[in-house]
C-alpha cells in the first residue's frame, strides 16, 4: 500500500514537472520570437556602459524582444554579456532573439557616410566631417590641433594637418571628434604602406617630407596626368637647392584659398612661404590623396624646372629654363 502511494506521488510530481517544462518551453519560444508590430525596425542608441538588464528593458519597451529576462539569460549563457557594442542600431522586429544579440555584439550599427575630399586644409576637413556626421567642427579642429595627440601618434608636427586622410568613410553616427580623427589618421597609416615607406627611405626622405611635398602637388595638379610631372619638377628644384615657389604655400601662409596670388602676397613672412624660403615648408598644407602621394614617391624623370597654369582646363606648361618660362608667359599673357 505504501509502495503504491509512493508511486502515485512520484507520477504526480512527474506530471507537474512535465507541465512546468511545457509552460516554460512555450514561454521561451514566445519570448524568443520578436513581437509583431506596424513598423518592421526600430532605431536604438546603445550608450557605452549600458547594463545588459537596462538594455533588455529598452529592447522590450521598443518592441524588439518580448522578454528582458530571457535576453539577459541568453546573453550570459552565450558568454556575451560584456561584448555589447555601443552605437546606433536599426534593429528589426521580426528576427529571433539570437539574431538581435548577434547584431549587438558584432556592432552592426547604422552607419553614416562622411566624405573628406583631397586637398582640404585641417579647418576645411573639420567642416566636412561636421556636415557629414553632425558634430561640432570646432571640437574636431581642437582635437586635430592637439599637440599631445599628434605626439602620441608619432607625428613630427603639433597638428594632424596632412594626415587626416581624404576618403569616403562609413561611420557610426555616435562617433566623436577624437575617435573620428584617430580613424582618419589610422586610414593614412593603412594607405602609406611599408613599400611606400621603403621608397621614401630610398629617396633619402622622411614620410613627413613626402606628405609635405605631396600636399603641394595635390594643390598644384588639376589634371591627373600632370601629377607625376609636377612632382618631378619640384624634386628637380629641391635637388638643385632652388626655391619651390609654389603659390599654394603662399595661400596657406595667408590663411586660405585665393583666386589669384598677387606679387605683394609673395612677401608674406611665413615658414610656409616657399617664395621666401628654400626647401620644403615645415609640414603639409593640406591632406593629399593616394594619387598625389604616389606621384610624389614615383615622379616622372623630367628635365623641367618651371611650370605655370595656362588657364585652360587646369593644364600647365613646362619649361627647362627661366628664359623659356618667361617667353611662354608672354605668349600666353600670363
Question: How would you briefly describe this protein structure?
Answer:
This protein has 334 residues and is mainly α. The protein contains 14 helices and six strands. The protein folds into three domains: 34-109, Dna Ligase, domain 1 (2-Layer Sandwich), CATH 3.30.1490; 112-191, no CATH class; 194-332, no CATH class.
Q: Strand portion, in percent?
A: 5-15%
Shape: elongated
Cα-based radius of gyration, to the nearest Å: 31 Å
What structural class results from the helix and strand content?
A: mainly alpha
Our measurement of the CA-to-CA distance between the termini, rounded to an integer number of angstroms, reads 120 Å
How many domains is the backbone divided into? 3
Number of contiguous helices? 14
Contiguous runs where pLDDT drops below 50 for at least 5 residues: 8-34
Overall pLDDT level: 88
Q: Can you offer a commentary on this structure?
A:
With 334 residues, the chain is mainly alpha-helical. The chain has 3 domains: 34-109, 2-Layer Sandwich (Dna Ligase, domain 1); 112-191, no CATH class; 194-332, no CATH class. It has 14 helices and 6 strands. The strands form 3 sheets. A two-stranded antiparallel sheet has the order 1-2. A two-stranded antiparallel sheet has the order 3-4. It has a two-stranded antiparallel ribbon with strand order 5-6. Strand 5 (306-309) and strand 6 (316-319) form a beta hairpin. Helix 5 crosses helix 6 (137-144). It starts with a helix and ends with a helix. Mean pLDDT is 88; it is low at 8-34.
Amino acid at each position: 500500500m505504501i509502495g503504491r502511494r509512493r508511486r502515485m506521488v512520484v507520477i504526480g510530481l512527474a506530471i507537474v514537472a512535465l507541465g512546468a517544462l511545457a509552460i516554460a518551453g512555450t514561454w521561451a519560444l514566445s519570448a524568443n520570437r520578436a513581437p509583431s508590430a506596424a513598423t518592421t525596425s526600430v532605431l536604438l542608441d546603445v550608450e557605452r556602459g549600458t547594463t545588459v538588464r537596462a538594455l533588455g528593458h529598452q529592447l522590450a519597451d521598443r518592441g524588439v524582444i518580448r522578454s528582458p529576462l530571457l535576453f539577459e539569460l541568453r546573453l550570459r549563457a552565450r558568454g556575451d554579456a560584456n561584448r555589447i557594442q555601443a552605437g546606433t542600431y536599426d534593429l528589426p522586429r521580426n528576427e529571433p532573439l539570437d539574431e538581435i544579440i548577434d547584431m549587438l555584439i558584432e556592432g552592426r550599427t547604422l552607419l553614416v557616410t562622411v566624405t573628406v575630399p583631397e586637398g582640404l586644409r585641417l579647418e576645411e576637413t573639420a567642416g566636412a566631417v561636421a556636415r557629414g556626421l553632425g558634430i561640432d567642427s570646432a571640437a574636431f579642429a581642437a582635437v586635430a590641433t592637439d599637440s599631445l595627440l599628434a605626439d602620441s601618434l608619432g607625428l613630427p608636427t603639433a597638428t594632424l594637418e596632412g594626415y587626416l586622410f581624404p576618403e569616403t568613410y562609413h561611420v557610426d553616427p555616435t562617433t566623436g571628434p577624437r575617435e573620428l580623427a584617430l580613424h582618419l589618421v589610422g586610414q593614412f597609416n593603412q594607405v602609406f604602406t611599408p613599400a611606400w615607406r621603403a621608397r621614401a627611405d630610398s629617396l633619402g626622405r622622411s614620410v613627413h617630407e613626402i606628405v609635405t611635398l605631396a600636399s603641394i602637388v595635390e594643390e598644384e595638379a588639376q589634371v591627373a596626368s600632370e601629377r607625376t610631372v609636377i612632382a618631378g619638377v619640384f624634386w628637380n628644384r629641391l635637388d638643385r637647392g632652388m626655391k619651390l615657389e609654389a603659390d599654394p604655400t603662399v595661400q596657406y601662409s595667408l590663411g586660405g584659398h585665393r583666386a589669384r596670388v598677387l606679387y605683394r602676397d609673395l612677401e608674406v613672412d611665413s615658414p610656409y612661404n616657399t617664395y621666401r624660403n628654400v626647401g620644403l615648408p615645415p609640414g603639409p598644407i593640406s591632406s593629399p590623396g593616394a594619387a598625389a602621394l604616389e606621384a610624389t614617391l614615383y615622379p616622372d624623370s623630367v628635365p623641367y624646372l618651371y611650370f605655370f597654369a595656362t588657364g585652360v582646363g587646369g593644364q600647365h606648361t613646362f619649361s627647362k629654363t627661366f628664359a623659356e618660362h618667361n617667353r611662354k608667359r608672354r605668349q600666353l599673357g600670363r
